[in-house]
Amino acid sequence: MMLDKVTGEKREIDILITTPAKKIGVEVRDRKRRAGTPWIEEMRAKHDDIETDNLILVSRSGFAKPAIKKARFYNIETLTIEEACETDWPVAMLGSQSMLTDLELQYDCFVVCEFGDGNRELFAAHLDTSFSLGEISFTIDEIVRHVMSQQDFRDAVYSKTDGVHEFSFPLSGLGFPPCQIEYNGRSGYVQDIRVRLRISTHKTIVQNKLAKFQQIPFIEATSSSSTNPLQVVILKTPEGDRGCIVDENGTRTRALWPFKDSSSTHPSSV
Fold first, then answer.
1. 258: pLDDT strictly greater than 50
2. How far is CA 254 from CA 44, 143, 221, 268, in A?
3. Residue ranges per domain, the chain?
4. 176: helix, coil or strand?
5. Positions of E strands within 126-176
6. Cα–chain-centroid distance for residue 141?
7. What pLDDT sits at residue 102?
8. Which positions ≥6 away from 238 have C-beta within 8 Å?
9. Residue 185 falls in which region: left (phi positive, over 0), alpha (psi -120 to 50) or beta
10. DSSP labels for 205-242?
11. Residues 68-78: pLDDT tens digits?
12. Between the N and C ends of the chain, which has fewer C-beta atoms within 10 Å?
């Protein structure tokens, strides 16, 4: 129940979601016919008077096209019962503003190589430098990205601040035996890989929308920046939540890591 600011009476709401930042009202309609514009207008007027911050309308039979158009104009989220039940994204994200943190990572790599005379040397390595492992070869970039895809690494990166951070890892710790490499005409074995990681975060306010494409639910988030508008698309797949960032020209600028959970509002990118 919420207080009507005009009449002073208590008004009933089907569902009230309260967060530290806002109050979200959810109204549900169980009719055989699709919800029309009058219901949109009625619910909008009601929630204007009880001062909820966001409104989500759920209709068992869906919505007529004019009703959807009216709801979008007033930033009201519309869902069918199936859509409301199928997605497990927090309802608080729908039709609301949030802060998107884009985490950009750049890195340089160094290797510790042991040569036949027993000496070890540290030298910078190009990302496309290849290691031989039997009949299979790997580049440094592939190995480093393998490390970066691990959950414990992502957890550690989320806690870092902007700036330069360094870390190293032995190939044996990744299940690799020492890999052979040619350097300045000498043959040696790589023991460790060291990475100098530069972290840069960019924050922007985005507007979230929930939709479906070929029965796959996704969230579309559009930034409010006038100088560098971006669109973030996040799909819910059996393999996890994945997505990409698209610039104003429709060009995919970078891929997003799979999220640790669907409630994350801080996608990270490489």
1. no
2. 38, 19, 15, 10
3. 1-86, 102-201
4. coil
5. 130-133, 136-139, 163-170
6. 23
7. 66
8. none
9. left
10. EEEEEEEEETTEEEEEEEE--SSS--EEEEEEETTEEE
11. 999 988 888 88
12. N
Compute the radius of gyration of the chain from its Cα atoms: 26
Token duo for residue 86: 């199928």
Residue pLDDT, tens place only, 25-53: 889 999 989 999 999 999 999 999 998 88
Structure tokens given for 107: 């890195």
Q: Which fold has domain 1-86?
A: Trna Endonuclease; Chain: A, domain 1 (3.40.1350)
Sequence-ordered list of residues with C-beta below 8 angstroms from that of 195, at least 6 positions apart, any chain: 107, 108, 109, 110, 144, 166, 167, 168
Burial per residue of 180-210, b for 16 or more beta-carbon CB atoms within 10 angstroms, e otherwise: ebeeeeeebbbebbbbebebeeeebebebbb
pLDDT, position 41: 96
Residue 199 has pLDDT above 70, yes or no: yes
